[in-house]
């Protein structure tokens, strides 16, 4: 701040007014000029020229490419700064992007589709994240527990991270394929990191677990009761990254850059298991020896409606969507050709 000149007489007061006016003018120029010169889109940091994206994520194998892109500087190369915060599940991130607390969130496809179909949030998917393969999505139990066969789950508690979401729907589909009456199962919600210990204590008869928590559960003696990514749910798309349509429209350049970075990182992670293994201990807090045992699915590098239709079908078959009324293409963001 420029202080008023204290000399007496009219000339001192005049100089004081001129100094204050000059300071105000400089401040106005700096405030408005930085935005004009940097091409700010709302999340721009005027002091660095980097566009900040506040992103919700989880400590799961699914998001390894995100951390790979951060570690290798791919976001910085595109002028993006990613501020991450942890969410318990995909459904938790959706109200946060609706309120503006987050710009982009990692989440499962069931949550995104349901929010879009029910007009709760106008979700726009920006990037794919993860697709299940054999051994990546397991219903686990303790071999000395009360349940030894899927049919014995009737009347028992089964842990899922969120009700009526992908975690539960794939379990239901796999169990029904084996003739189990899933209406007789008590599904209870539990965060993934808490599931291995809950199995060991006998708090639940089984738990629907993802990596790296599958490997943790194995270390505690848990075993596979059934593979949820099998039969009709084999190769099921699991999760992606999404924002609101409003955010994408107002930050189209940032959205295109994020999509471009993730496409590159997803493809790289898909072909380099060692790179993924090295990242896991840092953000999931598992031991390096556990990371070497983790079963890793696939990281799709493109958003494809044809692949995601299998999630729509799963939801329709479980009564979560009215038949033939949801078009997945309406939810997918495709960057314009001129986004470079």
UniProtKB/TrEMBL annotation:
It is found in: Periplasm. Residues 62-269 form the SsuA/THI5-like domain. It comes from the Bacteria. The keyword Cell wall biogenesis/degradation does not apply. Its main location: periplasm. Signal peptide: none annotated. It holds the Pfam family NMT1. InterPro entries: SsuA/THI5. One of its GO terms (cellular component) is periplasmic space. Gene3D superfamilies: Periplasmic binding protein-like II. The keyword Ribosomal protein does not apply. Keywords: Signal. Belongs to the bacterial solute-binding protein SsuA/TauA family. This is NitT/TauT family transport system substrate-binding protein.
């Amino acid at each position: 701040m420029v202080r008023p000149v204290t000399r007496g007489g009219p000339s001192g007061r005049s100089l004081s007014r001129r100094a204050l006016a000059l300071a105000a003018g400089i401040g106005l120029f700096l405030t408005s000029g930085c935005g004009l010169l940097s091409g700010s889109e709302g999340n721009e940091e005027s002091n660095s020229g980097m566009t900040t994206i506040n992103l919700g994520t989880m400590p799961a194998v699914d998001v390894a490419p995100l951390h790979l892109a951060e570690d290798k500087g791919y976001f910085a190369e595109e002028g993006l700064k990613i501020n991450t915060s942890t969410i318990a599940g995909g459904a938790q991130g959706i109200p946060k992007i609706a309120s503006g607390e987050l710009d982009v969130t990692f989440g499962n496809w069931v949550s995104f589709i349901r929010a879009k179909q029910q007009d709760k949030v106008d979700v726009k998917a920006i990037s794919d994240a993860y697709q299940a393969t054999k051994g990546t999505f397991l219903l686990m139990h303790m071999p000395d527990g009360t349940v030894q066969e899927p049919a014995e789950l009737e009347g028992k508690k089964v842990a899922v991270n969120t009700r009526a979401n992908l975690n539960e729907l794939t379990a239901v589909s796999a169990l029904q394929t084996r003739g189990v009456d899933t209406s007789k199962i008590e599904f209870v919600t539990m965060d993934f990191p808490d599931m291995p210990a809950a199995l060991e204590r006998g708090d639940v008869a089984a738990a629907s677990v993802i990596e790296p928590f599958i490997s943790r559960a194995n270390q505690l003696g848990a075993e596979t009761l059934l593979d949820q990514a099998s039969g009709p749910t084999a190769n099921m798309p699991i999760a992606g990254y999404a924002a609101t349509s409003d955010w994408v429209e107002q930050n189209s350049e940032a959205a295109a850059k994020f999509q471009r970075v993730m496409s590159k990182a997803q493809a790289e992670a898909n072909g380099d298991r060692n790179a993924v293994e090295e990242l896991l201990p840092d953000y999931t807090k598992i031991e390096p020896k556990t990371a070497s045992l983790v079963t890793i699915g696939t990281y799709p590098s493109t958003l494809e409606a044809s692949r995601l239709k299998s999630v729509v079908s799963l939801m329709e078959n479980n009564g979560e969507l009215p038949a033939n009324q949801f078009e997945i293409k309406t939810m997918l963001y495709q960057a314009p050709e001129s986004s470079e």
